[in-house]
Amino acid sequence: AVGSCSSVFTSQQSVFGSICICAIDFLASRSSRAAKRPRDNQPLQWTGPASSILVNSELVGAVPAIERRSVIRQRQLALRSVFAHLWNTTEGEVAAALDRLYPTQGRPWVLEVDGDACLYVDFYRDGPVEDDEWHTRFSSRAGPPAVSVIADISGRHEGWPEVRDFVARVLGTFDGVATDDGWLHLWSRDEVQNDHVVAGRKFGYWRDGDSAAG
Length: 214
Fold this sequence. Notes:
Layout: H1 2-32, H2 57-61, H3 65-74, E1 80-87, H4 91-101, E2 109-113, E3 116-123, H5 127-130, H6 134-137, E4 147-153, H7 160-173, E5 175-180, H8 189-193
């Protein structure tokens, strides 16, 4: 009976630990967008916080020991974001499409890899607040998008295959462009899907070290 109770307790610890890790990761992804986007004439660099800044000792301490080690190891990876900016549509139409593409839990939509959250997808409405150049950044499209969607990439995943699939799916359904945290180019679906190099870099600023090989 003691062994049975111990197994149940251990299972509950593991489930609790997994919930805590996902919650910490999601909160960190929300906060990473508060960082100011670099202007086009500034060096391309990561401007958001590492997730370790957002994991305080109380949260980490509440996680069972085996899961706590996982949090400490994984939180060193930076969270990243990519965006899909869409025209000639509404949030209702986009939500319906995302429900079909990522039928997990509804907004925010989550893409899992091997049972672990990799992408957190939601509407992005903070552009005019976060980006001083928002109203001129889309001049080639005659103005800002009707709807923008953000995909935050968990620090536990490299994320490129999932990001490319996300952009291909969304821009294959709606008229739009994609941007990453660099904000230096409005990327078409074909450019992202075919992994083109534009002005010496690829889509996904964290992959710039691979651009020369492309």
